[in-house]
Each structure stands twice: as structure tokens, then as C-alpha cells.
Amino acid sequence: IVLDAIHLPVRLAKRVVRVPVQVVLGVRASGEKELLELRLAPSESRLSWAGVIEHLAERGLRAPRLVQLDGNAGLIGSARAAWPEALLQRCTKHKLENLLSKAPKHCHEELKRDYGAITHADGREAAEKAYHAFVRKWEKLVPEVAASLQEAGLELLTFYDFPPEMWKSLRTTNVIERVNEEFRRRVKTQGSFPTEGAALVLLFGL
Questions:
Q1: Strand 87-90 with 66-69, pairing
Q2: DSSP state, 91?
Q3: Distance (Å, rounded) from C-alpha 132 to C-alpha 113?
Q4: What is the per-residue pLDDT across 85-118, written as a single tens digit (0 to 9) for each?
């Protein structure tokens, strides 16, 4: 399953605020995708995500084989607590954005090349070598970058344990990000939604 949040401008209590919409997308063994959950939340806290996961369990969802998610601490903690046996795949795109935010602009291209050697290697062994080389190098150049990569650890490389033809779709949460991009395109002239229900209806339709 893939879990992520889309942030939308919604009028609440007479003020327009950006609120997260928590999205859970399931992928069957056949490759068929199914929307499992879509709800507005006050925040992306661990308690909030735990509520989403508990609701899925109440509806009969068994522990998934793989959980794809970003670096949100509340989401990661909730997923680990609910599905201790499931494999976790941290989104490599989100992590790259995080790494770039911690590095001076003049070294962004070098960082991208070194990071790409990890996420686009020929296999798990080569990826782990590139990972450790990245840490050794950037600990000296920009320690905060190396620390950020280590925060995600080898959960960035879980996708290598699956067949190569699946790597592109498993390394990121892009399947939800694409919906987010389409949603922003549709609503950019609208400004905000008058109610929670209006936002959910349009997002569900997309």
C-alpha cells in the first residue's frame, strides 16, 4: 500500500487554511490499484495516521507485504506499530528533496549524481556500496546531508528486493503525487474549497 497526504486550501471556521488529506492506495498482486482511504485530518501526527490505519484494520485490511511512504515521523511510527512484519520503502524522491534542502546550491548537481548512484544502481549490492560511499563523502562536505540520508537508512533500498521491472514504481510515492499534481492543476483558479465535503468529492472523482 502507498500512504501520503495531499494538502488543500479549505475554508474552516471562517478562515482558509491548508489541511492534509490522508490518502491510502492499495495495489493488488495483479497490479490493480484501489483507493482505500481518503480523509481530511487536522494534522499528519502519529495519532492521526494511527487512526487511519486502525480504521483500515477494522474494515478487514490485512498487513500488506510492502508499505510505501515519505519521511513523516507520525506515519512511519504508525505503520511500524501496526504492521511490524511489513517491508517499508521510504520514498526516494522525498528524501532527495530533503537532502537538497540541507545542501548549498552550488553542490546540488554533485549531490544528485551521488544519490542517483544509490537509487538507480544495477542491484542491491551496488546500491549499498553507493550508500556507504555517499555517507563517507558527505559527512566531510555537509554533515547534515549525511545525517539526513542515514535517518532513512536502508529503507530507501527495499525496492531492490523486488523484481527489476517493479523498481521504478516502488522507489517513490509518485502514484499519489501525480494525483496531487492533477488536483492542483484543476483547482488553481478556484483558490479554496468552501467545505471539507467539496474538497473530498473532487479529489475522490480524480
A1: parallel
A2: -
A3: 14
A4: 999 999 999 999 999 999 999 999 999 999 999 9
